[in-house]
């Protein structure tokens, strides 16, 4: 195990990054005991500088973080916990992560590119649960998996034609259409987009 | 602009996160001047605790970070710089990011799910540049865009059949095949995967 460089207070900063979406859920601090407890239990532990005590994330809120891996930086003075976030929510304000504003104080509304597919699938899942009036996703799903697969096939063909035409705008538009239909079809098959990504990663050398 | 809570040394921790891949490139510190310079110039500035000076990332190495957004956490005591990383490399060790080892000291070889598509495209680009002997990507590309598009179409049909069969393993396998062919076709069209994701995000409400 790597020797960590704790600061003069015996602490090291920890970034909690989501395994599925890549979003930074929070930045907190750990002492040696918190790191040890995290390794022992598989759940994120931190050290609260205000309460001056060891702290298991989510112990009262249920917003537990299962830690899949701990990463260490080049100087051994910062950590990343790669986490699966219970309740898909990590911030005490009720937000999904603590970094929900930019420096101008504006709320961040849109995901970043690497978050696009997992966040799209979350939207699809929410639509299918809540069935809001006028939702295209709900309408399509109500017509059944065959209809969704047919639409996916149509969008794949349109993507193919766009690629053949070498028209950038058309390619982006049709590929996005196709990925939406694919995401819906995967969701109806109870498959998480991350599982497709895991399959891709397995093949990487 | 939000008021930031600098610590007793006048510093705030900054996570540099890549806009395209989502990887955490590094964790560093900023003082008020570094944040101001970052906002003014659009390039990441930090404060070096060892050299006790303001520091423009990449000034000597060329590994500049263009900052697209600064995010602030709920307690206003941590920042994220969302960056585009010059040279696709950020660590003084020559690694792409500073978190290249796990706590056991082992090198991290595989990307995480949210990194899969951008990292796959990097591999494809590298193969097309370096043309290593025996590479399937190089062989396919040498047969031309029509051949790649044809393969994409075949894999889309196989994905469609797998979805229809509701066979999870088959769906994951064929979808991964299709996404590989799509990534190759996009690369041959000089389209970055992130541009497709931006198109998807534009549509999100």
Which shape of chain A, going by the Cα principal axes?
elongated
Largest interface: A-B, 88 and 89 residues
Terminal Cα separation of chain A, in Å? 25 Å
| CATH homologous superfamily annotation of the largest domain in chain A | MazG-like
User: Could you tell me the number of beta strands of chain A?
Assistant: 7
How many structural domains of chain A?
Answer: 2
Stretches with pLDDT under 50, minimum 5 residues of chain A: none
Indicate the radius of gyration of chain A in whole angstroms.
21 Å
Task: Report the top-level CATH class of the largest domain in chain A.
Answer: Mainly Alpha
Outline the biggest β-sheet of chain A.
Answer: 4 strands, mixed
Mean pLDDT reading of chain A: 97
Q: CATH architecture of the largest domain in chain A, please?
A: Orthogonal Bundle
- Report the oligomer: homodimer
Strand content of chain A: 15-25%
Provide the helix percentage of chain A. Answer: 40-55%
Strand order of the largest sheet of chain A: 2-1-6-5
Helix/strand order of chain A, N-terminal first: EEHEEEEEHHHHH
CATH topology of the largest domain in chain A: Helix Hairpins
- Which secondary-structure class do the elements of chain A indicate? alpha+beta
Domain Phosphoribosyl-AMP cyclohydrolase (chains A, B): 26-100
Pfam families (chains A, B): PRA-CH (PF01502), PRA-PH (PF01503)
Region (Phosphoribosyl-AMP cyclohydrolase) (chains A, B): 1-116
Keywords (chains A, B): Amino-acid biosynthesis, ATP-binding, Cytoplasm, Histidine biosynthesis, Hydrolase, Multifunctional enzyme, Nucleotide-binding
